[in-house]
Write a structure and sequence with these properties.
This protein is mainly α and 199 residues long. The chain has 2 domains: 58 residues, Homeodomain-like (Arc Repressor Mutant, subunit A), CATH 1.10.10; 117 residues, Tetracycline Repressor, domain 2 (Orthogonal Bundle). The protein starts with 15 loop residues before the first helix and ends in a 5-residue tail after the last helix. The N terminus is likely disordered.
Length: 199
C-alpha cells in the first residue's frame, strides 16, 4: 500500500498488478519444486497459495502450461547479448552469467519439468521453444561468428560445442555454487579444443 504525502496525496507503492504477478510466479515455482512437480500445479492451487482469484491468473496466462513456462523463464538470468568482440570474451561473459544463476529451487523446478517430459510433452516442448532455445541461440551466434572470424575451427560442430558449454554450467549444479574462476576455466578448456590458436 502507498503512503500519504504532506499534501494528502497518496504515493504509489509497487503497482498492485506487479505484486500479484510476483506472488503468482512465486507460488507456481513453490508448487513446481515440490515432490509432485508438474502434477501438483493447478490454477486453483496457485491462486490459493498466491492469495489471488483464478480470474487474476487467467487474465495473464490462458493455461497452466503457459503459467509454468513463464515462471521458469522469470527465474533465469537473461544471457548477455554478445558484444561482437572475441569469441573468448563473449563466451566468458555468457559462462559467468550461467555460473552466477540461481541454484536450489530453480534446479528442482527444472528437473521436475525435464523429468516429466514423457508425461507432459507439450509443456516440455513449449519450455524448450520459449525459454531454452532463445538462450541457446545466443551461444550459437557467438560460435558461428567465431568460425567466420577464424578464431574457432572451421569444422566445429556448433551444436556439440554449445552443449559442452551449457551442460557443464547447468547440469548437476552444486548447491554451494561454482568456485571463483570456474566459468573462465570452462571457457579456456573448451577453447583448447575448438580454437585455432594455442591457449
Amino acid at each position: 500500500m502507498g503512503t500519504m504525502t504532506e499534501t494528502g496525496q497518496r504515493q504509489a507503492g509497487r503497482p498492485r498488478s506487479e505484486r500479484a504477478e510476483k506472488a503468482i510466479v512465486e507460488a507456481t515455482l513453490d508448487l513446481l519444486a515440490e515432490e509432485s512437480g508438474v502434477a501438483g500445479v493447478s490454477i486453483e492451487a496457485v491462486a490459493a497459495r498466491a492469495g489471488v482469484g483464478k480470474t487474476t491468473i487467467y487474465r495473464r496466462w490462458p493455461s497452466k502450461d503457459a503459467l509454468i513456462v513463464h515462471a521458469l523463464g522469470a527465474v533465469k538470468e537473461p544471457l548477455p547479448e554478445p558484444s561482437g568482440g572475441t569469441a573468448r570474451a563473449d563466451l566468458t561473459e555468457i559462462a559467468r552469467t550461467l555460473a552466477a544463476g540461481p541454484v536450489s529451487r530453480y534446479s528442482r523446478c527444472f528437473w521436475n519439468v525435464v523429468g516429466g517430459a514423457e508425461k507432459h510433452p507439450e509443456l516440455y516442448a513449449r519450455y524448450r521453444q520459449e525459454v531454452i532455445e532463445p538462450r541457446r541461440d545466443v551461444v550459437r551466434r557467438v560460435l558461428r561468428r567465431g568460425i567466420e572470424s577464424g578464431e574457432l575451427r572451421a569444422d566445429l560442430d556448433v551444436e556439440v560445442a554449445m552443449a559442452l558449454l551449457l551442460g557443464t554450467l547447468t547440469a548437476k549444479r552444486p548447491q554451494e555454487g561454482f568456485p571463483d574462476g570456474y566459468a573462465e576455466a570452462v571457457v579456456g578448456t573448451l577453447l583448447r579444443g575448438i580454437g585455432t590458436t594455442p591457449q
